[in-house]
Amino acid sequence: MEAVGVLMICRSLLLLLLPVLAAAETLQTYIVQLHPHEGGREAVAAAESRLDWHGSFLERSVSWEQERRPSSRLLYSYHTVFDGFAAQLADAEAAALRALPGVASVRADRRLELHTTYSYRFLGLNFCPAGAWARSGYGRGTIVGVLDTGVWPESPSFDDRGMPPAPVRWTGVCQGGEHFNTSNCNRKLIGARFYSKGHRANYPTNPSEAVSLLEYVSPRDAHGHGTHTASTAAGAAVAGASVLGAGAGEARGVAPGAHVAAYKVCWFNGCYSSDILAGMDDAVRDGVDVLSLSLGGFPIPLFEDSIAIGSFRATARGVSVVCAAGNNGPARSSVANEAPWVLTVGAATLDRRFPAYVRLGNGRVLYGESMYPVKTSLKKGGKDLELVYAVGGTRESEYCLKGSLDKAAVAGKMVVCNRGITGRADKGEAVKEAGGAAMILANTEVNRQEDSIDVHVLPATLVGYREAVELKKYISSTPRPVARIVFGGTRIGQARAPAVALFSARGPSLTNPSVLKPDVIAPGVNIIAAWPGNLGPSGLEGDARRSNFSVLSGTSMAAPHVSGIAALIRSAHPSWSPAMVRSAIMTSADITDRRGKAIMDGDGGRADVFAMGAGHVNPARAVDPGLVYDIQPGDYVTHLCTLGYTHMEIFKISHTGVNCSAVLQKNRGFSLNYPSIAVAFKNGAKSAVLQRTVTNVGTPNSAYTVQVAAPPGVKISVAPTTLSFVEFGEQRSFRVNVEAPSPPAAKDSAEGYLVWKQSGGEGKHVVRSPIAVTWVVE
């Protein structure tokens, strides 16, 4: 980028980070939820607009400043997925607000983190007349809203050739800003907005720490994450796509005929709840069909979770909300975005590999993976180099932190770097800056055999923990250890897949073990998708600058695959509710890999339901599921009552008042009509009865017979055992009786499944629900 452009960006970044008030260090951002039915009616009636109404609360709680009115503290005014506003307040002012009639909650802003040329083919998407693309028209007529780091509109993945105009219901805008104007949108990228007020208010007031970081004060993506996720969900076809020659093929999003709307809510310092809520508020009002959020944090109570709160109203308005499960695996109960009204997605592997072997001086060959350009690697990495490890004698040098390496000791050598603390690509830059000729990234025990790869600035490869142990043992066994990296290009079909990624967050849900999370898994490891044209992968110079694609891993990459599938289903079945869409995706999921064997977990062992939910997504079956489990918004409220949520906690989530005593009296024996079956036994309980209702969306005059595999130590009976349907859209209910005298030895959970299999000549539909039973000790 030219120097003038850099100066403009840095200037804009300084403006972005200017403190909102001179005394900003004493203020912080709070999100205020209002309850207009409890003491706020007079304010609503007196206010000329909702903005005035919100400002009236600040007038009563914020100390006046001579030159500024209290309303100047207002950052956002929400009114679609949330009733309330975001403002900068001192602690005392926040306390004063909490005491006002009509205020439901006042909580501090929360920072969240950002959690393909081949993956669409791996999912079975092709040009078959009976396939998901043909049945859905490639997702035409649907709009996928992506909340992320923005978009790079010039990417060929957002080319609008052959695209129809935006649907007439679309009311969004193409918001201008730095290096972005209204002409950057088209018939594919139909809208773009950005939200920076929460970020500006929360970031430290000293901008000198960040002037070296490039950022656009506009919807333009300076980081790549948003461009990558948006193109994964709904990118156009791009022939000859690759990452510097690796993974070459035709790139397509899962729903290549769908429209994209980008909502930039994430910046270099993360994603703040106030900005996320503003983006969701606009997206639902703009007319999106699917909201894709590849961001989140650790699990927190639903009534404190802005994504859960915002997505409740979005779902009630008919928008399917798809969220990443988080990258905190393999820890148990680490799954985030666990609200039952969202579709929560874990990450799985592909059967594509990028081998880069390490040939040691003693003849041993260690398996590794890399996406370093092959033509360059043959020249630079094709000879033996001396191996060095921890040359600085410090923990920092073991992890190759910048400035920690002894330049004299690493010059011209192959440096071994432990994985962790800093980014994988950052370590390669540190080695190159110190004069190293090549790098081996070594997994530590916590990473096991996980193989997320990167494009590096020098010949490099990533090896698993077992290989790392052998590598370090070899280095210590000889006075002059040597090795060379042998790059093997791209290999497809040789690895067993899908398998659950080691980093993918696991259940059971902390806040609600009676709903199984994650819901499904989807491709999320080494995914190739669009990338900003001025950035190479990981910000590389030289040839990498011209790359329009890059490779990333995470549940962030898995979620947009499912967002694309949701768009295909919405296109094929526009009248379906978000719950029906989720049900179709879940009950059609695969529980075996491409070799017909059980899906594996991480680097060994069979994946359980807490790792993969209902299984790995299957788009072809999802657009024609046979039966679906539907849920009305009011059912979620009843479900929250059964969990013991208070009146005010439920209001914070649903924005509706409820008398749980009356609701539970009216709905005795209620159980949420979820596509999976989860039972959490507490306080010595040994039995449970669950009710489920399915809707026929397959063929009329059809019948289904139940098949059950009960979890070990658990007895399950289903009544009736056969469901018959005369018409399309007809509903039938059944009961599931679960008896568990005692938990299995040394275990606190068990799993099984329930399947409704279509009978007769049209018996193509198999509707599967996983069963999870947990014993909770309180």
Automatic annotation (TrEMBL):
Q: Quick check: keyword Hydrolase in the entry?
A: yes
TM segment ranges: none
Q: Where does the record place the Inhibitor I9 domain? A: 29-115
Active site feature: D148 (charge relay system), H225 (charge relay system), S556 (charge relay system)
Can you name a GO cellular component term?
external side of plasma membrane
Which positions make up the signal peptide?
1-24
> What positions does the domain Peptidase S8/S53 occupy?
139-594
Give all residue intervals belonging to the PA domain. Answer: 386-470
Q: Which terms in the Gene Ontology molecular function aspect does this entry carry?
A: serine-type endopeptidase activity
Instruction: Give the superkingdom in one word.
Output: Eukaryota
Supply the alphabetized keyword list: Hydrolase, Protease, Serine protease, Signal
Ranges for domain Subtilisin-like protease fibronectin type-III come to 672-773
GO terms (BP aspect):
proteolysis; stomatal complex morphogenesis
Q: Which family does it belong to?
A: Belongs to the peptidase S8 family.
Which named protein is this?
Subtilisin-like protease
What is the scientific name of the source organism?
Setaria italica
